[in-house]
Write the structure tokens for this entry.
Amino acid sequence: MRTLICGGKIVFPDGMITADLLVSDEKIAAMGKALATSFSADRTVDATGKFILPGLIDSHVHMPWKSDSFSSGDDFSSGTRAAIWGGVTTIIDFAIPERGEPLSVAVDKRRKEAIESCYTDFAFHAVINRFTSTLAEEIAAVIKAGIPSFKLYMLYPGLALSDGEIYQIMRWVKQAGGLVGIHAENGAIVDTLTALLVARGKTGPAYHYASRPQLVEAEAINRMLFLNRIVGGRMFFVHVSSQDSIALIAQAKHQGQQVYAETCPHYLLLTAEKCAGSEGYLFLVSPSLKNAADVESLWTGCEDGTVDFVSTDHCPFSRTQKAEHKDDFPKIPNGLPGVETRLPLMVTEGYEKRHLSLERIVQLTSYNAARILGLYPQKGTLQVGSDADLVVLNTEKEHVLSYRTLHMNVDWSPYEGHTVRGFPDLVMRRGEILIDRGVWVADESRGMFIPRVLA
Ligand SMILES: [Zn+2]
């Protein structure tokens, strides 16, 4: 099957050209002017006046997240359908070992779960939630199996590791050629502040921010940067949310550390004031939403390269789940929907309002994640030989965001009523068109596991 996409503005991380793209089966086969004169195709897509971007990579999703008390709303089927609607063609989810399970077993189980029903291609970060004598070998084994990134938590019962454990794991991961991803928040400070607030009866959702203010994240990032400097490893921080953290990461990069930062649309668009509103309980997420100055610093980080990628931490909970303990913030499930709305929010708030270039948006939503997390050049770029994962972007058509018309399995949206532009007209994953002129046309899921290799 050959598809010719004609006349679009093809966006690269460092420029754009108006050209045709020839897709043959699953790959990009040619790029240039007037390809129709030299190639025949089974179908032709007219992309005149539109932008063509690499299919988005969301390197931080939970499909679903399961805990003892709550399970988030989307599974691999519903969540990756919604992802495709938002132009996302590859997700990176998490394999979390059950107690005592080796990493490779957790990875195999999650892969089997995903292969049945993923519309996007998929990969995993392996979560290390226990420290054992066999861990060094387990790390090396899963890296060989195509999972070179490891997520470590500094807080939460059942997930948290001590500083000493993290330090040793950083060394093992470095030796094996992998990369560490950190959820950086100081759990002891969160526990102390939470206990003080609860003792004073301050348990409404507005106090969530007071239980985990900026210092909780910045202190943890500072500590991890110090450890990483000693180890000399590669590390990324997930969901960075505050100004001090951005300054610390910028400084570490400047000093030559191989350290990378992810932020999420909710930290770029929303502030802690949301949690003080009448439906404040809906907006609980961790790290907490911060203040206007933090929002500005994150946008600056997107512009100047301190922020490497914008992913979503997609983890939706329903109104009922959120409301069950709505006046008791420590018990409200943390998480927000996001996998479907990242591209239009970045186009509307970044490209249109803040003059962030589309090239930079490509870097933030696909290219950098592919480079840093080992998907490049198969993913995250439009070049001959790469997977034909692409989005034909319509920056003209307006949409009013509403959970009723979005496809994530959740009955509310943090951006309800926001007017946006930038949903895709067409979404192609490995040569297969899943959305055509804004209409869902895919029949089966067919997402594949993509083994990753770090450069
Ligand atoms: Zn997460």
Q: What stands out?
A: The mean pLDDT is 97. The chain has one domain: 54-373. The first strand starts at residue 2 and ends at 12. Residues 54-373 form a domain with the TIM Barrel fold (CATH 3.20.20.140).
